[in-house]
Design a protein that fits this description.
The mean pLDDT is about 85. Helices cover about 0% and strands about 50% of the residues. It has no helices and twelve strands. The protein is mostly beta strands. A hairpin with a 5-residue loop joins strand 10 and strand 11.
């Protein structure tokens, strides 16, 4: 994450609304004090990729808002190349986002994001939303989410 050639670890402190980055020390350990990125909600599912094509690993993480679930989102932090991360954007999701993956969905050479999670209020469904990247660190929702409902089967 800081381009020193050592493996680093990204973790979420979901109840503290923080993303923690532990930098590798080159001896099999990590920095005793992590870099803390402040977020606004409970965090889940971090993913690292180069969202703006500058050669630096950036970070995306889902945020679940316990107090107002309809305000849940995912955020992207762009790395400046020295291990400093700036929040570049917040992207609304459906309620309870819990998983995130990054890939090129439409074969345009730009990274896109897929977010999934549970339906609200203990419903038996899940949602999948897609966001298309512009290659500069910003994304836009590609269409309405896909909802999958579980059906009960009586014996």
């Amino acid at each position: 994450m800081n381009k020193d050639g050592e493996l680093d670890v990204v973790a979420v402190a979901d109840m503290e609304a923080k993303v923690l980055i532990y930098f590798g020390d080159g001896r099999g350990g990590f920095s005793p004090s992590p870099l803390e990125l402040e977020t606004t909600n409970n965090d889940f599912a971090p993913a690292t990729r180069d969202f703006n094509n500058d050669g630096n690993l950036d970070l995306a993480v889902t945020e679940y808002n316990n107090e107002n679930p309809v305000e849940s989102d995912f955020v992207v932090f762009l790395d400046d190349g020295a291990g400093n991360f700036n929040r570049s954007g917040s992207f609304p999701t459906e309620i309870q986002p819990s998983t995130l993956d990054v890939t090129d969905l439409n074969n345009d050479g730009k990274l896109d994001v897929v977010v999934g999670g549970a339906a609200a209020e203990n419903d038996t469904g899940i949602f999948i939303s897609t966001y298309l990247g512009d290659g500069h660190g910003s994304l836009r929702s590609s269409r309405r989410p896909i909802w999958v409902r579980a059906a009960s089967r009586e014996k």
